Amino acid sequence: MVACTVTEECPVAVPADLLWKVALSRGDTSTLLKACAGMVDAIDVEGDGAPGTVSTMTLNPATGDAKVLKTRVVARDAAAKVLRSEHEIEGGEIAALLKSHVTEVTVVPAGEGACVAKVTVEYECINGEPLSPENQAKLVNGYLGLFKKVEEYVVAHPGEVA
C-alpha cells in the first residue's frame, strides 16, 4: 500500500478570517450553501465543529457523479486557521479509486483583503498505486473549487458576512 500526498495553493480575494468563517467553521452553514449553490445542495452538521464533528454535503448532480462528501473533523485550530479532516466520497470516478483520504486545509493571510488556501490531500488507493496526475488534480481541485465559490459569493455580496 502506498500513501500519497498532493498539495495545492489557491489565492483567494477574501480576508482569511472571512474565508475561515464561511467555508470552514461549520457553524452557520447558510452562507456556505448560498455561495455553493449549484455545487452543494445541502449540508448536515452533527457536532460543534470540534474534533469528531461530522458534516455531510449533498452534492449537486451538475458537479459530476459524486453524490455525497462526508467529513469528520480530526483536528481544528481556529487561531492558526488549520483544519484536518477525514473524508468519504459516495459516487464518482475518484471515490471508486480511493481507500481513504485526509485533507489538511490552512488559510494564511496574504495582505489586505486576501488570503491563500493551502490544501494537502493524503490518500491511499484501493489498488495500492498513486492516482494519475489528472485524478490528483480532480481530487484537490474539488476542495479548492469550494474556496473559489466562496470567494465569488463574498466579493459579489460585500457586507453580507461580517
TrEMBL record:
InterPro entries attached to this UniProt entry: Bet_v_I/MLP (IPR000916), Bet_v_I_allergen (IPR024949), Plant_def-hormone_signal (IPR050279), START-like_dom_sf (IPR023393)
GO cellular component, one term: nucleus
CDD domains: Bet_v1-like
Protein localization: Nucleus
All residue ranges annotated as the Bet v I/Major latex protein domain in the record: 1-157
Short name of one Pfam family: Bet_v_1
Stated family: Belongs to the BetVI family.
Name of the protein described by the UniProt record: Bet v I/Major latex protein domain-containing protein
UniProt organism field: Urochloa decumbens
Lineage: Eukaryota, Viridiplantae, Streptophyta, Embryophyta, Tracheophyta
